[in-house]
Amino acid sequence: MPTTRATTTWSWLALALALTVGWSGRADGHDIRVGTRTDLTANVRAAGTLVTVDGFLRDNLGQGIEGEAIKIDFAKAVDATGPIARDLRTDRTGRFYVTLTLPPGRYDGTIRYSGREFYYAPVERRLDPVTTRRGELELTIRAPALALRANERVRVAVAATSAAQPVPGLQLSVYVSGSLLKLPRTEEDGTVIFPLELSELPGSTAQIVVQFDGDERFEADRKVEVVRILDAPTLSSDARAIRARLQRGVAVSGVLGDRAGGVTAQEIDVILSQGGEELERFRARTDEEGKYGLFISEDRYEAGELTVQSQVVLPGGSLLEATPLTLEVEKTGLTGLPWLLVSLLGVFGAVLGVNALRDWWGAREERPEKAKKPRVSPQRARRPSIVAVERAEIPSEVPEGATRIAGVLWDRQRREPLREGEVAILTTQEEGQPAVIPATPIDADGAFSFGPLSPGAYVLRATARGFVSASYRFTIPHSGELRYFRFPLTPVRVVVRDLYAELSDELLEADEGAWGRLTPREVSERLLEAVESILSEEEEREEVVQEGLKAFRALLGRVLDAERGDGPALSSDEVVKAFVTLTEEVYYSQRLHDEEIITVAERLASRVREHVEEWRGR
Q1: Closest by Cα among 539, 537, 501, 493 to 518
Q2: What are phi and psi of 344, to 5 degrees?
Q3: What is the CB neighbour count within 10 angstroms for residue 608?
């Protein structure tokens, strides 16, 4: 009996071991994994009837998933047209990209990933609605404006583009003098080329008409070009000397034409020659009747025999020349009267110049010294004085009464109303807690108004991007000064500039007013020189001063570090340069800065003053 029980126990152990090994092998063989979250994103863009979808398939770690199938469906939102579907596969970065041509209309789209069992979870996303429109087609005809029938054939090219891109595979209708040509579709570069057989065309002109009737992708378009066909062209020329009082030279004229009449808008070269050598070439253009003409002043040639010849380059490179003309010319030059007039004008101009110079120099010596413009401190900017306007300036819609106020936010620097900003009123309730009347945005002219207000004390607070916030205390009822007034706000850049300018004048006593004549970089160099000169006034303390200079620079270097509480130490040069950089950025850039930057400028200026005074007292 014990033997049977022991055998049974070993059998159960063997069965458990076999099941364990079998289950482990199955797990390894099938690579069982838990499906991870997937992220599917896509951007949709439409240009005409072309729709581009560009997106990514990523796993829960943000890595791209390669070789997965993505399905894209588009369906019309109005008439529920059957979906237009595309199947894609992601590349090695998880990206998929496709360009579709959709008929004009509004479409809703979806992208779908079916997932992979035990690996990636399925996901579906709705795309942003997209609207396609027929693109604008631009047809261009490249053909010569002038053709010579003797050349028999010319080359004509037609190009089709949309949004500056070539349109291949387009069937165009081309008519030459009313006859339809059978041409292939446009090539990959959007062009189709055909020969124009001149010998088969009647008349002196050939009209080329290219048109496209429109389809689902592009609007219709039509272009017309006219080619003038020359039959036995001729060029005539005439030249004569002109000796008028105010016009002396040679007048050249002529006509370019053929059997059908004059040839318009053609360039004619007129060549002057003397003694067998070419002097100069001139160019004229034929008018609507084929006539041309120009005048050549006598300063372009010498007295004697002058040869004038006209010529034109015909299509194909052949040259058509008129018969050369020879005439005797004289150079009369200026007579005594013109020279006398020039001399008198020169003397008169010199007298006027001397008098003007004398008046300018006298005005310069008597010019009063320019008054120094007052600077705006941060305190003055935050608590400005209001400026009451004249009664004639008060708009008719401003409310009356001693319990109402109205005004306009004013740019102190540009002297004009602000376009953006907010105005709020702070009052005091019975319990003594401050209450705020909701802020009111200013209108396009910077105007604001409040009222009626209960009797009591109030604070008017105004804010605007790039300006120092300001407050003004007043009481209700008022005596009329608050009916309409200007509330000035100072730009942050002006306050920072004035802080820097004040510090510069303070330390550069011998060079007062350096701001305005020097750049901030040049002022900073003089500031550093002034600081070093203060520390080296006494020669007997040179060593002490040098050690103090190092300590002083180290102390200045820790200013910003002390303000932040940590960070690398800065040298004294870097402190001044930091101030300079701040001033240049705030004052000279076009960006609007928050008023908190003024606190940084004040602290930098304060630290420089403290350390300078400390070393002056030693």
Answers
A1: 501
A2: -60, -40
A3: 21
For residue 152, what are its two tokens?
Answer: 């028999």
In this structure, which topology does domain 234-329 adopt according to CATH? Immunoglobulin-like (2.60.40)
**Cα–Cα distance between 261 and 286 in angstroms, integer?**
12
Bond prior to 452 in cis (omega within 30° of 0): yes
In one-letter notation, the amino acid at residue 227 is V
CATH (one of 2.60.40.10, 3.30.310.260, 1.20.1440.230, 3.40.109.10) for 378-490: 2.60.40.10
- As a whole number of angstroms, the distance between CA 583 and CA 521 comes to 10
pLDDT tens for 119-155 read 788 899 999 888 888 878 889 998 888 888 887 788 8
DSSP, collapsed to helix, strand or coil, labels residue 225 as strand
The separation between CA 12 and the C-alpha centre of its own chain, rounded to angstroms, equals: 84
**Rounded-to-integer distance, Cα 471 and Cα 426, Å:** 10
Separation of first and last alpha carbons in the chain: 111
CB-based contacts of 156, cutoff 8 Å, min separation 6 = 141, 142, 143, 193, 194, 195, 196, 208
The beta-strand segments (E) located in 185-266 are 191-197, 205-212, 221-230, 234-243, 248-258, 261-262
**Where do the DSSP E strands lie in 544-614?**
none
Rounded Cα distance between 582 and 587, Å, is 8
138-230: CATH number: 2.60.40.10
Per-residue pLDDT tens digits for 482-517:
878 889 999 888 888 888 777 777 766 544 445 555
Does this model's pTM top 0.85? My answer is no
| β-bridge pairing 319-321 and 304-313 | antiparallel
The DSSP-derived string for 460-496 is: EEEE-TTB--EEEEEEES--STTSSEEEEE-BHHHHH
39-132: CATH number:
2.60.40.10
* Domain-wise residue ranges, the chain: 39-132, 138-230, 234-329, 378-490, 494-616
Least-confidence region, from 283-297, 373-387, 463-477:
373-387
